Amino acid sequence: MTSIAAKIGCTPQTLHDWVKKAEVDSGQRAGVPTDTAEKLKALERENRELRQANEILRKASAYFAMAELDRRSKP
Length: 75
Known about the structure:
Blueprint: H1 2-8, H2 12-26, H3 34-73
């Protein structure tokens, strides 16, 4: 690992990480494949954005409902 890493210009740890990742992606080693991890990350991001949008819509709905009640109660 060390001699190969020196030949390609990276650290042995980096090369080890690449090999480990390639083994996971090919199914030779247990773990979450890269494509699955990327999909999960994208879904988590989308979920977070949707929760934020829902919270904004909930607050806006409450605000406009109160404004409508105030408008109706004034003579």
